[in-house]
Design goal:
By secondary structure, this protein is of the alpha+beta class. The chain contains five helices and eight strands; from the N terminus they run E-E-H-H-E-E-E-H-E-H-E-E-H. The chain has an eight-stranded mixed β-sheet, with helices on both faces. A hairpin with a 5-residue loop joins strand 3 and strand 4. Helix 1 crosses helix 2. The longest helix is centred in the middle third of the chain and has 17 residues. The chain is globular and about 50 Å long.
Length: 240
């Protein structure tokens, strides 16, 4: 299992997801709920705790490395993302191949391929470059620290916003897998797959850096902080 790390950029910081991020995730997820039709986003504090618990279970099992997206300006949680589908190609060749199982000490494992996914961001942070910088940080870590050969990204084929964001990064569309899985709305969905290969990374890095340079002259305004209201009957913090 790759060691959890903090990835810090100019406007956002990716912190290993923990229960201390629950209140921030609840606040971020409460914005613009209509935009999350295709992505699981926690709705409320209890759901945020459950979301984090499930992510940490996947991390403990070696299936994912989840992060909270935090603004560097004021420490506000504005979303979440993760590495998943970690694959290992080192060691003796075994057939049929066993995916997701590293060779050697799993506590120091470094994947050869991975996916970036389960990404969502609060409405107030869209269009600020926060998502692009988060992707840059993760791709940089994957290609230049781990040395992966491929990063995969995918989206519900109906999610035009997410697909456009992936394409702006410079990722290559590999095609659409028809009737691939059940969507969040229960509909059997098509899934669009994208990838960035090791040899493509320098070009993709330049594309993202160029995009971010356009926002560098315009620092992000502080995000509005949630207002604490009264506690409800269950003793849960209400966010407004």
């Amino acid at each position: 299992m790759p060691v959890p790390v903090v990835l810090a950029g100019r406007t956002v910081r990716l912190e290993p997801l923990a229960m201390r991020h629950a209140e921030g995730l609840a606040w971020a997820g409460a914005q613009d709920r209509a935009a999350y039709a295709y992505t699981p986003v926690p709705d409320g504090l209890e759901a945020a705790h459950d979301y984090i618990a499930r992510a940490l279970t996947d991390q403990a099992a070696g299936r994912a490395l989840p992060f909270a997206l935090v603004t560097t300006a004021d420490g506000r949680v504005v979303g979440s993302t993760r590495f998943l589908e970690l694959d290992y190609w080192r060691g003796p060749v075994v057939w049929p191949p066993v995916t997701g199982v590293p060779y050697g000490d799993p506590l120091t494992a470094v994947p050869d391929a991975a996916e970036i996914g389960n990404t969502w961001i609060a409405g107030c942070a869209r269009g600020t470059g926060a998502n692009a910088e988060a992707k840059l940080l993760m791709l940089h870590h994957a290609f230049e620290t781990w040395g992966v050969r491929r990063i995969t990204l995918r989206a519900d084929a109906r999610n035009t916003r997410s697909r456009a964001a992936i394409e702006r990064l410079g990722a290559t569309c590999e095609g659409v897998r028809r009737a691939h899985s059940r969507g969040l709305d229960g509909v059997v969905r098509d899934t669009a797959f994208y990838s960035v290969l090791h040899e493509e990374w320098p070009t993709v890095r330049s594309i993202i850096e160029l995009r971010l340079s356009a926002t560098a002259q315009h620092p992000l305004a502080p995000f509005p902080r949630p207002q604490r209201a009264h506690d409800d009957a269950a003793g849960q913090l209400l966010l407004t």
